[in-house]
Specification:
- The structure is a single chain.
- With 706 residues, the chain is α+β, with helices and mostly antiparallel strands.
- The protein has 26 helices and 20 strands.
- Strands 1, 2, 3, 4, 5, 6 and 7 form a seven-stranded antiparallel β-sheet that branches. Strands 8-20-19-18-9-16-17 form a seven-stranded mixed β-sheet, with helices on both faces. A six-stranded antiparallel β-sheet has the order 10-15-14-13-12-11.
- The longest helix has 36 residues, at 601-636.
Length: 706
Amino acid sequence: MILETLVLSGFLYKRSKKLADKLKPVEDKADGDKQEVRSIAEEKMRKMVGSQQARLAFKTQNDEALISSSAALALATTGALIYPPLSLLSVPLLIYSSQDIHKRTYKLLKEGKVGTESLISITLLGAVVIQRFFVASLICLAVRYANRLTSRITEESRAHLSSMFEQQMDTVWVLVNGVETQIPFEQLKVNDTVIVQSGEMIPADGVVIDGMARVDQHILTGEANPVERETDDEVFASTVVLSGKIYIRVEKAGADCTVAKIADILNQTVDFKSTTQLRAEKFSKDLVTPALIVSGLAFPFWGFTGALAVINAHPKNKIMIIAPLTVLNYLNLAAKNGLLIKDGRSLEILNQIDTIVFDKTGTLTEEQPHVGAIHCCPGYDETAVLRFAATAEHKQKHPLARAILDCAKQRGMDLADIGDSQCHLGYEVLVQVDGVDVHVGSARFMELSNIALTDAINTELAHCHEQGHSLVMVAVGGQLIGAIELWPTVRSEAKQVIAQLKARKNISATYIISGDHEIPTKKLADELGIDHYFAGVLPTEKADLIDKLKAEGRFVCYIGDGVNDSIALKKSHVSISLSGASTIATDTAQIVLMDQGISHLDTLFNLAEDFKRNMDNSLKIMLTPAIVGVGGVFLLGFGLPQTLFLNLAGLAFGVNNAMHPKLVVSDPIDAEASTIDTIIDALEPVTEAEIIAANTCGEDTEATVV
């Protein structure tokens, strides 16, 4: 009955306020242009997750208030046990330690408003009026200590998140005039040659210029398997050489490194406010006036103490303390799984996604194709054609060359030495083998080199064009000897990942967007179990297709390679890129899969679901002590000590829930679960404009934090 009264009062208050706003004359609305006074908790969390200077200022202010409230509690305790007049000396210390609350309450009062700070002020001053000095001091000390504990946990979580990507060594070895020299890490600069051996961390982003090594890149990609790195391969700072020795030309050092930029992105994402948090904050603020009304109803039955207990039972701003911790830990968990979340809102919207659109090339298929067939002219066999092609391409690094070289390696071929070599526009190459010219490249290259194609090869060329395959011509001594057909390499994990995504109850449709012909696009869609496809799409048309799907009422997640998909990525509700570490700073996607594959997509959606569940649990934990507290006042005669204990217990449960992102926390009181779920579902939705405004950083204002 009490809960229903509280909720009904809140509902009536909100509706009456909206009606009053509608009836208010237009000229009176000028006051709406004034900046709303931020709550104490809002200022506190801005400082907790803000700049280092702001966090230090918050810690200093809170520590001073903690000392004052501790002294007040000591005096109140001594007065209660030994000499009562000493309790009066606790009052000035109480007022000093809670002065920021009273100042904010006064500002709100001048504007004709009440807030959660007003409730705290009434509780503290009321406890002093009825000479409950010990309880007042205990409330103030508990709030300050909770702030200190939460601040420390937040700082440690943030430091852990940043330290994942900001590991540094004291010194590094560089090559100076052919001599290996040890220098301080801070002196490392672009174009230096760094030597990294087995067991050492790579200190900067760069390119391998000599040597070979196995490198552990799990800090960036989340993958446990090491990768091979050799000449001309990219390497990244904070990754570790497991075996081998490599010489690296530094391209990015210090703050310009990929890991430093990732850390900066994560630090910006930490400030994001979830929809659940915003709804809870609005609900908490809207319950202030009903709490005062219900406390007035309690006064005739339970006196001033009961009325204060009702006010103290209000949930206040616990969600503002708990939510940032939750965000920190989920960003941490995502980073460990090779998921870089650049926009926190995308983690929420993923739960609304019903349509997933894949770019084909580079997303569902690997960058490097594979040899599907070798077509031979009369007098030559597959071995001869492949050996000549691999010999010509063995110094090339483009995907087509690597596909041919991999095939030759699998067949155990020994390659001949080459003489002069020339690289032409595109992937064409001309080399000399035993004094004979070898041409490897496209049909156009053969035509320009006056090398005729046979009818059989022309037929295969037309077939490959229809199928979306590449055909690499091979000619020796000015005569065509064959052609190598390269097929797209479908990602090994693609079929399983798509099956996992389609098994989700909210995913109703999957699409492929491809610039290829219809036949290969349809074939790939059928092979992977994708529902629909768009073929022959130009890069500029991809965004139009996303708009079309959105116009049908779909929530679209677009997954592309982040290069020619930038407009489509921006148009979609959630954008995911496979660009990887090398282009992380300029990537337009909201989420980046750092392993350059799609194996972690299902993990991402699981993470989003668990994030929502965790935030909902936090909201339940926030409401439960309030429900029990108000009910306890009317039914069990609860006073300030009991509601204080419930508040602290709720905060402890909430912090524990936030610090264990994989743990599904049960409701503290099972009997109230259905009622709490009903309240959560009934919370007023937050508009998109409110979400954007809440997640837009403004200038910090001075405030002492409770």
